[in-house]
Amino acid sequence: MKKKYVISIVVILLIVIAVIFFWPPKFEFKQSQNIELEYGQKYQEPGFKVTKFGKDYTKKVKIKNKINKNKLGTYDIIYEVKINGITYKKTRKIKLVDNEKPIITLTGNENVTICPQVQYQEEGYKAIDNYDGDITNKVKITKKDNLITYSVKDTSNNETKITRTITSEDKSLPTITLKGSTNQTIYLGNTWKEPGYTAYDNCDNDITNNVVSSGVVNSNKLGSYKITYTVKDLSGNQTTIIRTVKVISKPSNPSSQTPSNQKGTIYLTFDDGPKEGTTNVILDILKEEGVSATFFVTNSGPDYLIKREHDEGHTVGLHTASHNYQTVYKSVDSYYNDLKQVQDRVKRITGIESKIIRFPGGSSNTVSKKYSKGIMTTLTKDVVNKGYRYYDWNISSGDAGETTSSSGVYNNVIRSLSKNKVNMILMHDIKPYTRDALRNIIRYGKNNGYTFAKITMSTPMVTHHVNN
Ligand code: ZN
């Protein structure tokens, strides 16, 4: 009886031991056991714990990661632990998913304005998905009224929709371009001819034929006349511009005949200044001799000498700002641009907008051919039409090149003087030998019955033959 009892206890103990031995460990997963992972994100073990009857086996666990991060799907993470020679396994399911929408990018603006009556031309678009890559060819386009919708779905059914708004309207004004100057001058009695114009609209293109011009120039009456040009585009945008035509009296002596009161008159003209050291001495001599002269100035030299020229009663004419033939004679516009610069300088210093000019190299120059063919033919007419008076010369002192002594300058001048003509003498106030010859030239003139004068707007133009 006692033996039986002992056996029973032993058996029970053995069973208990066996149960304890084979009892499986307890796996505890942090977060849930199965996890959804967004494509592109890195899997990070959320943590776990393995225990058996309070004893921690976590550190003995081996993890096998079967995730293919490049492909959507469901993958296993296997946790293995060996306790007392027995291997226990648990599996975590990882579902790799794509919840990210594709991105559509439009070429051009999302708000487009086009001309009325014009069909919108698709400017292009691109669709990129984080998982599928370029899915531009899956984009569906639908049009409704003025709205274009672009939609696309990726393989995970994520959808993106964007829109482009098309507005049909023309709010831009047309432009009118006048041929010739907007401020024109003609002489009394001459007929004014419309130089022409063009009109252009951003939507309607060339609309020159729709221009309406109004206004009359009475060329037999002095005054300022306005011609108005108006044009409307198809959307009703209207542009108006005005041209002014001034009818002025004829210059006092446009003919080449020298009036008797001009005969024997000497015009001393000085180009290329002012210059410190020569112009100031020339001004002193003119003052002492009581003689007026004309200075065709440039943008070089100090301002105060131009001020002196003006204050002491001489004429300040315009020569050139740069005296660079290549710049001056590049084009008609370029000529006027250069002229304006020197005109502005003189106006700033003297307060007078001088219209008395001398072309660099004279109107007969041939150097301009190199830069612009026929420019002198154009300019010599155009400057007069604009109200300028230009003066060449009929006596050269030679101080621009061939002569470099004051006796040379003196002799060149006095042997060309004549009582039967206007004596328009070309000199350069930047040359020391001209400065040194001046007093003797003036004395010779006075002793031989010549009179001295400065150029004014009523002095007859002395002009060369134009060679270009
Ligand atoms: Zn010059």
CATH superfamily of the largest domain, by name, is: Glycoside hydrolase/deacetylase
Rg measurement, Å: 49 Å
CATH topology-level name of the largest domain: TIM Barrel
Helix content: 10-25%
Quaternary organization: single chain
The shape, in one word, is elongated
Bound molecules: zinc ion
Number of domains: 4
The DSSP helix count reads 8
Mean pLDDT: 93
Beta content comes to 25-35%
- Cα distance spanning the termini: 150 Å
Unreliable residue stretches? none
Q: Quickly give the structural class.
A: alpha/beta
CATH architecture classification name of the largest domain: Alpha-Beta Barrel
Instruction: Look at the structure and give the CATH class of the largest domain.
Output: Alpha Beta
Q: What composes the largest sheet?
A: 6 strands, parallel
Tally the beta strands: 29
